[in-house]
Design a protein that fits this description.
The chain has six helices and eleven strands. It has helices at residues 19-32, 56-59, 102-114, 132-138, 196-213, 224-229, and strands at 6-14, 36-37, 41-51, 63-71, 78-83, 94-99, 142-157, 163-176, 183-192, 217-219, 240-244. Strands 1, 2, 3, 4, 5, 6, 7, 8, 9, 10 and 11 form an eleven-stranded antiparallel sheet that branches. Strand 7 and strand 8 (163-176) form a beta hairpin. It is globular.
Length: 247
């Protein structure tokens, strides 16, 4: 029986924005572990979070966002991501992650209805046409927040690959609502076709070494959405996220 590929993620807040220094430390760490380090990657995207006018998704620890890539390998793409804390969901809470379009919107809206979030899907007859935003508006949802993210990332893998590690550095500007300070956030990802405790230990070890070299990095449960809204979202920002990768 094959072992499923698991991914583990931890978040760290950064008080000083120094992505290049973090990247250099990451390269040293991965080479010391015998991992092959890829060239760094960069991309810019805007995350627009959607909700009902009375914020039913926010209250139910559900996040629905459209991610528009403006630069990097996926420039011009748009992805719909639906994440929640529902017991019926797969490990990691990701229910939908697909290119934007009526099909992915309809799937997300069907799931929201089964989770007890009322909306107007099917009442207007317009959900099967037009772009994702038009479909969401037709169902009665509205933008809640918009964040511009300038992302740098460094990836390293064993040759198999049995184990992979990635450092993600995000420089976040809140576009809506206005007036919020910028956010610098680091994520450490580990993945592999191995038992969860092995993958989690690799992630923990990488986080520990990063914090030794950069004391300004502190582990956090703060999500980008919570920062944008200036609130605490209990249960929506676990410091440890586990996801079973579908292949």
């Amino acid at each position: 029986m094959s072992v499923p590929r698991l991914a583990v993620q931890r978040k760290l807040a950064v008080r000083t924005a120094d992505g290049r220094s973090l990247g250099r430390s990451w390269g040293v760490l991965c080479r010391n572990l015998g991992l092959a380090v890829r060239a760094p990657g960069r991309e810019t995207f805007t995350d627009t979070y959607w909700d009902t006018p009375d914020r039913r998704l926010l209250a139910g620890s559900i996040r629905l966002r459209l991610r528009d890539f403006s630069s990097g390998p996926r420039a011009g793409e748009c992805v719909l991501i639906l994440r929640g804390q529902q017991e019926a969901q797969a490990v990691g809470g990701i229910a939908v992650a697909a290119p934007c379009g009526p099909g992915s919107v309809l799937e997300a809206l069907r799931l929201l209805r089964t989770w007890g979030v009322p909306h107007r899907m099917g009442e207007s007859g317009r959900e099967d046409a037009g772009d994702a935003r038009a479909c969401l508006r037709a169902a009665g949802l509205r933008p809640l927040a918009a964040l511009e993210v300038r992302r740098s990332y460094w990836t390293a893998e064993m040759s198999a690959p049995v184990l992979g590690l990635r450092l993600v550095y995000d420089d976040v500007t809140t576009r809506e609502p206005r007036g919020r300070p910028r956010l610098s956030q680091v994520e450490v990802h580990a993945w592999g076709r191995a038992p969860l405790d092995v993958v989690a230990a690799a992630c923990d070890g990488a986080v520990g070494l990063i914090r030794q070299r950069h004391p300004d990095c502190t582990e956090t449960a703060l999500t980008k959405l919570a920062h944008a809204l200036g609130i605490s979202l209990e249960g929506m920002g676990d410091m440890l996220t586990v996801e079973q990768v579908q292949e």
